[in-house]
Amino acid sequence: MDSARVSWYPGHMRKTLRALQDDIKRVDAVCEVLDARIPFSSQNPELGHIIGSKPRLIILNRADLADPSATALWLRRLAPCVAAVGTSPSGVRDIEPALRRLLAALREKYEKKGQGGRSMKVMVAGIPNVGKSSLINSLCGRRAQKTENRPAVTRKPQWCGVSRGLDMLDTPGLLWPKPEGGFHLAVTGAVKDTLLDTSDLARSLLAELGGIYPERLRDRYGTAELRGAALGRGYLLRGGEADEERMALAVLDDFRSGKLGRVTLETP
Ligand SMILES: Nc1nc2c(ncn2[C@@H]2O[C@H](COP(=O)(O)OP(=O)(O)O)[C@@H](O)[C@H]2O)c(=O)[nH]1
Ligand SMILES: [Mg+2]
Prior knowledge:
There is one protein chain. Strands 3-2-1-4-6-5 form a six-stranded mixed β-sheet, sandwiched between helices. By secondary structure, the chain is α/β, with parallel strands linked by helices. A hairpin with a 2-residue loop joins strand 5 (158-163) and strand 6 (166-170). The chain is elongated and about 75 Å long. It has two domains: 3-170, 3-Layer(aba) Sandwich (Rossmann fold); 197-256, no CATH class. The chain has helices spanning 3-6, 11-23, 45-51, 68-77, 95-102, 104-112, 132-140, 182-187, 198-212, 214-221, 226-233, 244-256; strands at residues 29-35, 56-61, 81-83, 120-126, 158-163, 166-170. Bound molecules: guanosine-5'-diphosphate and magnesium ion. Magnesium ion is lined by residues 132-133, 145, 153-154.
């Protein structure tokens, strides 16, 4: 990466970028974690540059919140790729077998060199708050990594033994300066809410959901319109006007917690 591009980054992201560029040299493969609801927008092009030609397994995390039929399409499009729910051990069961398949050729190479006992090292990388640490915890069967529902909880690289011969490296999330899917990243919680106008965000989300799942908005709010929804719920300001800000928070919370059903915003 040339330094002109790196200088675009805010300080802590630049540090993350450098750390990933360094760590990539120490690993045999990478699990690139995407959000199953927004596989396009959650794929960091910069990470692609860092991964280069290393074996890569794509993980569509938060599959519990995504539309299963859309996930099935993405699994085919992005292969080798598995779907996962990072918060439970049963939700990550496809990952280890997929990694072993991905690394079979390399393993054989090591065995021929008499290094069969060598442990395989896999980096887990992706945007902030996509579930990297949760996935690793579920794979390791213990609470090895700190997880929290906000970006930038994992600050330093952390190793964790998943099983005999397989070690995984947790990494801090990497965003890039001007993500094209900024709106989708914000509604799914990868970018801090405070950076964006909540009402605008909720309005855009309602418009988009109105196009894909209109009946769900009708069922929950009686309308696809923010102001109408606020009035319908009796969310009012002192003068009797609709409290759109309060309604916007409710809509975003409903979406993020799955109360609007399983939703995928991007299809292949
Ligand atoms: N619904 C759901 N929530 C998840 C899943 N994986 C992670 N989370 C939640 O997403 C938030 C961020 O997880 P974390 O592992 O800290 O993300 P990281 O920043 O990528 O390491 C936490 O609140 C997790 O409980 C998943 O598959 N489904
Ligand atoms: Mg983390």
